[in-house]
What we know:
Structural class: alpha/beta
CATH superfamily: Metal-dependent hydrolases
CATH class: Alpha Beta
Strand order of the largest sheet: 3-2-1-9-10
Distance between the termini: 57 Å
Bound molecules: zinc ion
Strand content: 15-25%
Number of helices: 8
Number of domains: 1
CATH architecture: Alpha-Beta Barrel
Mean pLDDT: 90
Radius of gyration: 18 Å
Amino acid sequence: MSASGNPLSIPDNTFPSPGWLKVDFHLHTSEDPLDCLDHSALELLQRAHALGFHALAITLHDHVLSDPAVFAAARKLGILLIPAAELRLDGADVVVLNLSAEEASKLKHLRDLEAFRQRRGRSVLVIAPHPFFVMGGSIGKKRLIEYIDLFDAIEISHFYTHCFNRNRPAIQLAKRFQKPLLATSDAHRMEGFGDHYTLVQAPADAPPEVIFDAIRAGYVRPVSAPLTIAQFARNLWWIFVEHEMNKRRRRLTQPTSF
Ligand SMILES: [Zn+2]
Ligand SMILES: [Zn+2]
């Protein structure tokens, strides 16, 4: 644990260092039909490039972004973009990396992950996002333990302060079951991107399965610091007021299709 008492932060001057890849595997963009966000995947890629990210996963809700133009843009910027989604299975959010839209459409229940994992082996990574949070689709302690073998890693959510920190039980559980912790931004706004990420020790040109192997073996350093009270309040305002208003506005302005 660092002197500041935060077990997650490491000084940012350790990056960039050879052999460590900067990754964020839980991200949202305006291409999500279930969300209403301002920044597109292409805008996010530009920002990621400026911030020195090596690998990303855009994890729209129940939807795999597979636009070839986005993947071509990522390649051009030297970023490994892994097809992924944040699926809601039996009411619980699960982040699945390196799957096709067709594969995602067949995953309906948590137990469906078992056959999927058996078929795909080391080429997929399954993360439990924000498992102990009360809002949204958190899996909760009971089911996370019940299905723990289906998960490769547990998320350190960005959404915490010094006083309010639902990551603490997640960290304990990860330790108990020897699962690596991945810090992500779960960014729904561009300003939420870049401060919470993970360093993975792997070669610069590593394909997804090699990065996943490194994560499963624990070669990870989550980089995350608590939000300030102002940042936390700004997040709450966005979730409960701005985002809801934007969604309502979109519903009113979009023509109804039959
Ligand atoms: Zn979620
Ligand atoms: Zn999310």
